[in-house]
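Researcher: Excuse me, tokens okay?
***
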Amino acid sequence: MNLIHGLSDIILALAGIYVFFRYINPLEFSSTVLWESFILSVVVAAVFGALGFFGFEKAIPVSQFFQTLATINGAIGLVGATAALVSGSDFSRWGSYAIIALGFVFFALYEVFDIRPIFFWVPIVCMIFVLFLGLFALIKGKFQVGLWIIAGVTFFALGSFRKEIFGDADFTVSLYHLLMAAGVLSIGMANSGAVLARRD
């Protein structure tokens, strides 16, 4: 049991829930589907992760499953969602479904066929794509979108490589949760303009 890690997981879950209902749910359905493939997986992983840290051991495998889902399928959805946001043009529903399906293909290759490098390379490649999309948004003059995307992917990268940067100390677990929460909130802020545009 570790109350501090459990509380930081709850903070992550609450950040994801807030961003989903405040910034993601109001978007066009095709974009919502792509964003939620990442955010909702993170939320479920964080909720069950908190339960695991509070002593409910049966929750740990569920958390690990959704962590993997967010890392692989969610990361690919994140690229598609960011591309739609930066371009200002939503995918068709079938286009969004195709992106999600691609994510599940990689997820199945990892889970079923045990292709271990997928867990390492998919998020790295996806973060690089998202970073370039953020830079492209800046070039297009979409400064708020670009800066928040870059901030988000920076937080995600710091979280992913926390051990290499901060070492193996116990506090890095909670640090990871907080960095992920900051990244999720950054995603929300990147979408804030699109939400306001839909409400006008």
